[in-house]
Amino acid sequence: MAKKKSIFVKGKEISILNEKDGDFISLTDMLQAKNGDFFISDWLRNRNTVEFLGIWESVYNPNFNYGEFAIIKSQAGLNSYKISVKEWALKTNAIGLRAKAGRYGGTYAHADIAFEFGMWISAEFKIYLIKEFKRLKEDENSRLNLEWNLQRTLSKINYKIHTDAIKENIIPNLISKTQISFTYSNETDLLNVALFGITAKDWKKENPKSKGNMRDDASIEQLVVLSNMESINALLIEQGLTPKDRLIQLNKVAITQMKSLLENNSFKKISS
């Protein structure tokens, strides 16, 4: 499904759809910046426009219909010639221009083509369009790099957790016999007791002024461990362990992993 984003060019909001085959900019939105009556069909009937679109399609579209393109090109520029975006796409199998209906309705063009169309608005508009589009892509790349670095750091942390788990032989049992023997109403509370030592209901009683729940107030280390525990608990359920035995095992996991995380310098950097 296409993702919609926006940029502002000369005070006009321009929609951008991120499709599987590239970024498509709304020509319909761009027209708002044009003084006087001007239509996309006017631009599309120009011979230079048709030649540019044909070259672009020949580079990026292996299914481009050159036969139909030749007919359109021969007619382009004539006073009697007129073609819509929908007709252009239908006749030539073009992929660079798209007429969309529904939620994101309007005429969209691949970024390369939209920049060319921007010149028909004005040279100044084209320059600012390219500038804002580049800024958007730089912001996206920065976020992707941040996410990638976070994932890489978490992977290193999880690796250390597993290697430390091998070294650990004696795990202190911090949950009481009463907690072990108690029947919990759901798996969520089982995990809560294993990690936090308390059920969600009891935590709420102790923190009546809190707007959230115990997990909202959890540290990043606790949330990482909790995520790992959920996966481990699923495996323990498949193995047929009783809730009592799972609670004991999960509590040991929580203790071991929390120790590992709190001692890990890499994790301290991203959580501080």
TrEMBL record:
Top-level taxon of origin: Bacteria
Residue ranges constituting the KilA-N domain according to the UniProt record: 5-136
Name the record gives this protein: KilA-N domain-containing protein
